[in-house]
Amino acid sequence: MLPPSLRTWLGLIAVLAALVVVALGVRYADEGGPGTVDARIGAAVEGVGPPWRYVARVLDFLGEPVGAAALVGAATAGCLLLRRPRAAVLTVAGVAMAVGTATLLKHLVGRTIHGDNLSYPSGHTAFATALALVVALLATGRRGRDGLGLGGTAGTSLVLAAALVAGAAMGWAQVALGAHYPTDVLGGWCTALAVVPATAWLVNRLADRLADGMADGMADAARRERR
């Protein structure tokens, strides 16, 4: 799920994204209002009318528990149909880790919006970005008729493009609906960029160890039978 040709680039990006998350968290810790950049972007985006407000509400619903569960379930089922159990595990684990990390950071940072509602980083944006990353990793890593098999710069570009499109769409919806500040959205996007590659690496390591253990067990059983 994390092709060797992408590990270096995605690893560097994950580190940079983590630094951005920390820097923004320190900057906006315990604050309850928009910064200068937030105010400027929010003034241009927030409060859109129909039909774009309906689009924003649909995107927002996809980040809510019911919509998110449906998307993750569909993606997991697709991975299983393609016989990619690691991808199915990463779909659930990657999204769960990204959203869980965002939720934990909200309580640590303590930034609020509309009263006491914790806002940094955006969990909706972290979810959408994480899911897009998993799907993009599946597409770049799978070779043959039903996959792209991309690596290096091309693979990294596709993964980042998918993350950017998904994160930008969900982030726009959150700012347009007044649910988050723009910097909350950036923090959520970077949270997913930092967490998903690390989760993919961990899933690969655990799956490899499990496969090696099963292979050793079968080899031992075969040797015992020959005796």
Describe the protein's architecture and organization:
The protein has 227 residues and is an all-alpha fold. The chain has one domain. Helices cover 78% and strands 2% of the residues. The protein has 8 helices and 2 strands, in the order αααααββααα. It has helices at residues 4-27, 36-45, 52-62, 65-81, 85-109, 123-141, 152-176, 182-226, and strands at residues 112-113, 117-118. It has a two-stranded antiparallel ribbon with strand order 1-2. β1 and β2 form a beta hairpin. The longest helix has 45 residues, at 182-226.
**Oligomeric form:** single chain
> Averaging pLDDT over every residue, what do you get?
87
Q: Given the helix and strand composition, which structural class is it?
A: mainly alpha
Q: What is the element string, with H for helices and E for strands?
A: HHHHHEEHHH
**Rg, nearest Å:** 20 Å
Strand content: under 5%
Q: How many discrete domains?
A: 1
Based on CA inertia axes, which overall geometry fits?
elongated
Which stretches of 5+ consecutive residues score pLDDT under 50? 143-148
**Count of runs of 4 or more consecutive helical residues:** 8
